[in-house]
Specification:
The chain is about 50% helix and about 10% strand. It is built from 10 helices and 5 strands.
Length: about 200
Amino acid sequence: MKQNKKIIILTGGIASGKSTVGNILKEMGYEVVESDKIVHKLYSKNSEVYNLIIKEFGSEVAGEDSINRKKLGNIVFNDDKKIKKLNKIVHKYVVKELIKRCNENEDDIIFLDIPLMIEEKYKLEKYGLEYDEIWLIKSHTNTRVSRIMKRDGISWSEAERVISNQMTDEKKEKYADIIIENNGNLHDLKERIVSFLTNI
């Protein structure tokens, strides 16, 4: 897969700032492949993944042009068994596309934005994902709660519950090669990223 390329995974909990870090890297000219966008594509109507999801979770999750992510989320949310079933369907196709995108790109360094990289690490590796480093983006819980409230229009307690359903940053840290603290302003975040890039 790698062909002498350096593959760096960007990961972190919801509202930690993965997209912001990814956008900074894109502005600097780096390739950032977002697994969420791949999932959106895989959910397109009549695709192989679409049909497998309909078969597993029923026609009620079918949207007009793709899987209705909100309805699917309502079904699998808070149900570990159903989440595992969904991940089992989707992840091998995501990894296949990530590998394809890496092989097609001629850059020396490629970033892959994978929100559940650490939670699903061993399964993703089993499907053939190879990489050199994991960069974990972290933010204070209160900062993340505020971001979720603003983004999704939900209450403080609802946003806290969303975060509490994910693996904690403390558990994720032992798997990370680089930890990027995202609690300051954009300028500070850019400087932090630049300092890590100089050591690659």
